[in-house]
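Regression test attached.
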Amino acid sequence: MTAKEMELRKKQEVSKGAGEGTRPGPVFVPAVDILENINEITIFADMPGVESSNVDIDLRDNQLTIVGRVEPLEKEKEVSLYKEFNWGDYYRQFTLSNVIDQAKITAKMDNGVLRLVLPKVEKAKPQKIKVITA
Amino acid sequence: MAIVRFNSNPDERSEFDRLRQEVNQLFNLFTPGADPFFSRVYPAVNLTEEGNILLVRAELPGVNPESLDISVVEGKLLISGERKIEVEDEKTSYHRREREAGVFRRTMVLPLKVDSGKVSASMKNGVLTITLPKSEEVIPRKITVKTT
């Protein structure tokens, strides 16, 4: 099987008004995959250029906020000759419907991809109820 | 005969050229979708110049550096590779699936001759940086005038 050819998608900017930044420059919406199994919710987010120390994950009530700050790689002495994409921070917010065990959240940055694992609390996991026959 | 503007030296690039480039970029930023120059070829690249070095950068999050193939052939830079995304078992359901996987191949014409033997590449936080030192032939050389 031959693999699918990738197509470039323009980086989508966060609409103005939603979480206005304090730093100048564009803020982009990272592409995400959200997966769920009985134990946890896993979020993958593409945030190229973001160092693991520059990721902020905030969970308040059911509101999950992911912020990734990008330190531009281009040095001041560099002159731009041709530009197809802009550097910018990443911002995305989700409302979670499940109850998350906040203490067990793990986040990892690997080669520009954030992997965020949100374990569900025991109560939220579905439990089989046995019907006792009399 | 074509007239070619000499602008290999950034210091000598006219202020007007710079302004035109910046205004074009601004228009492209604010009119998404209406950009006829937006290529659909992955990945997007930025080209910068620092002294005698050209730098090409591309955002390739989650791409294994070992899957990348970079070469310089006849003044063209070729970047190809594959992005793989793990497939989860059937017990996992997807709520959102925006990230793409697949193969890519990008060719870029370099504005200057580069020393293909000295090209190097590095990957950091999903950003690929290719360093292309200019060929000796295109580096401006100062010619001193001898007085007799």
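Expected vs. actual: identical. Residues 7-38 of chain B form one domain.
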